Amino acid sequence: MTSGPRLFSILRQGSILIASIHTALDDSQLERFREDLIDRIGRDRAKGVIIDVAALDVVDSFATRTLRGIAEMARLRGAQTVVVGIQPDVAFVIVQLGMDTGSLVTALDLEEGLTHLAATAGASIGPAR
Amino acid sequence: MTGTHDEGPRGVARSEAPRPLDGDEEALLPELVAHLREHRTKLRQEWVSRIREENLLQAMTSQEMSAETTSVYDNYVEVLETGSVAALQQYARDLSERIIPRGVETHEVVGIVLLLRDVLARSLFEKYQRDFGMLNRVLDAYEPAANRIANTVAVSFVDERERVIRQQQDSIRELSTPVLPVRERLLILPIIGVLDRERARQLTVQLLGGIRTHRAKVVVIDITGVPGMDETVANHLVQTVDASRLMGASVIITGLSPDIAQTLVTIGVDLSKMATIGDLQGGLEEAERMLGYAPSRPDGAPMP
Amino acid sequence: MAAAGRADSSRDRPSPAEITALIPLVRRIVASRVPDRATADDLVQETLTRVLAASGRVEPGMLEPYAIVTARNVVASLWRDQDRQRRNQHRVVDLRPPEAPDEDVLVQEDRQAVAEALTRLTDRERATLLAHEVSGQDTRSLAAELGSTAGAVAAQLNRTRARLRVEYLLAVERTEPPTDRCRPVLLAISGGDRRRQREVDAARHLLECDLCARLSEPLMGRGRAREADVRVPVQSDADVVAARSAAREVASGVGFPPTDLTAIATAVSEVTRNIVKFADAGEVVIEVLEEPRRGIRIVARDVGPGIPDVDRALRDGYSTYDGLGLGLPGARRLMDEFAIVSEVGRGTTVTMTKWVGER
Ligand SMILES: [Zn+2]
């Protein structure tokens, strides 16, 4: 799925996909991440998606729009997306940039993201039915 | 071939090729330095007594004074000898770092360096007073070097002092925007007093960092004690609330005065989308109700 | 220590420090022609060895030009070798002859180039320069002859040297510059005059003109111009990440708090992306400011179609492509100062500044 050093990973846990970005990504790498993830959501019939962005030291307009796009595409495929791990400085700058994040569901970290999905999407990391 | 003689970087390296006068002065410096080394003990003592007369460095014990003046003296002579700007700056920084915490003031440090300059100049005067031509040349060599040391020390001291003061201000500010973890996953930020831009910036850093450290899900910011804020600060506050949400925490604002509410409306904040509750007590009750439910929703309102 | 007693004759041979000082210059020249790093390093070594060997014969002021010519020739002879290798690849034995000593040729070429460059000065410039450099006449007596002041003569001499360097390089290249703007740009760079460089928009010209980009390399080393600046060439997506990392690193050295570092990196990301999306090529230059306060200035310039309506591009929601919409206004909100100059058909320059402790 990814070539060269692993820039991101997508793991399936029950009905949830956990997508972790491992390093700063440029725009084309982010696009590949989006395509791979959306592809997996369809194939795995995931109910929930967690995107861990803790490794990103910059989340600019393109990255924010990409995350929003993934969440929207996931929703159309019946999965709910939670973005976790946004760093404090990064969170503030996203807001200062003036990005519309209203539709984006966020949580502190992976654990919180899972709790959220369990409560709202009925998705869990237990065996998929 | 004709020389396109160049005054670029290499020209500088070449400037050691002496103009007659420079060479003469520079050749004198080793002799000067030897003299200052030879009479180190006597000159240093003379310097210390001048410092006492002028009531400088009173915050120091005589032991500290003795250690410090010895070190300054030796460094001073060394810098005279090498003429190295880097060494000089290093020396000045070290000196400032050591003595600023002991409450030494700028005029004192400049004062003692100038005193040392004069003590040494007088000793040179005594040594060469019979040969007036020689005396002039010695002083021509010594004075620019000594003045350069005094200037560098003064500038470095002022810089270092500013840095220390800024650090102290930072830590005071941190205290002035306390983030209180009142119970698991709940933070309270009681803000009292005027919220200026610097303090608002500090508040953001403290709050967002606090959310992560305490894994907070709900934050109550109580601004009952804030008399008012300008539009920039109000905007900053709203941005902080939004950023908190991106970190997965909901923010409740309590104690919003009509004035501040008006400012928020002026800058285009939709108050219906902000969780505002009249007083801190009500805010805490709401927070606990929210914690009873699961996670934050985009609009920061409690889950149904 | 003081050099008072040093014998004058020792000046004839450059010191190791002077040779070492040539390394960045030589490295730039070689690196701009030879992409492979290991090969480039070898060639730098080779050049320095030759310069060192010849240094006794090179006149003091000529060491740098000599190193420049040597570097070029070393690279050229590599190319010749590679050509020969290609031609001879079908033969099993290596027919490359042992390296022929071409230093005499070099010196010859060099002399010709200097002579050629001298003819391109005005008579008065040439006469003054030669009187000063060759006959050793000092600026005061020159000033008396010319009815001028010593300071003015010295300034004139500096300008003449700057021109001579430019003409020398052009002569060595055996080429005439392609545009009217080339000479003023090269002169401003050669003289190390930053104000003049801004006036003639030298940085943009270097993006547009290959010849000047190449010639500016050896010239840049001497003016103090932009030695502290960090320059990131921008062409692809990956360069956006490189530019913002570089900006973060510089800003961190300036003493910005962490939130500001993220803001600066993000703003750089936005403006750099516009270069990749819209322009053919561009660069991001990061500069540390000391006056009136500490700060950082970022200039992103590109050679491209330009923005027809800058005001509109700065409004939220404008989008020719999915992305310009927030890029520029967002970046503006993150910085303290923000300016765009754009010329349709030529390109865009975004200049943004942030001060330590603002806001
Ligand atoms: Zn050109």
From TrEMBL, chain A:
Domain STAS: residue ranges: 6-117
One Pfam family hit: STAS
The name this protein goes by in its record: RsbT antagonist protein RsbS
Signal peptide: none
Database matches in Gene3D superfamilies: STAS domain (3.30.750.24)
Classification via InterPro entries: Bact_StressResp_Reg, STAS_dom, STAS_dom_sf
Automatic annotation (TrEMBL), chain B:
Residue ranges occupied by any STAS domain in the UniProt entry: 176-287
Pfam families: STAS
Origin: domain of life: Bacteria
Gene3D superfamilies: STAS domain
Residue numbers spanned by region Disordered: 1-24
PROSITE patterns according to UniProt: STAS
Protein name: RsbT co-antagonist protein RsbR
From TrEMBL, chain C:
Pfam families (alphabetical): HATPase_c_2, Sigma70_r2, Sigma70_r4_2
Keyword Ribonucleoprotein appears in the UniProt entry: no
Gene3D superfamilies, alphabetized: 1.10.1740.10, Histidine kinase-like ATPase, C-terminal domain (3.30.565.10), Winged helix-like DNA-binding domain superfamily/Winged helix DNA-binding domain (1.10.10.10)
A GO MF term: DNA binding
Lineage: Bacteria, Bacillati, Actinomycetota, Actinomycetes, Geodermatophilales
Gene Ontology terms: biological process: DNA-templated transcription initiation
Family indicated by similarity: Belongs to the sigma-70 factor family. ECF subfamily.
Identification of the protein by name: Serine/threonine-protein kinase RsbT
Keyword Transcription regulation: yes
Limits of the Histidine kinase/HSP90-like ATPase domain: 259-358
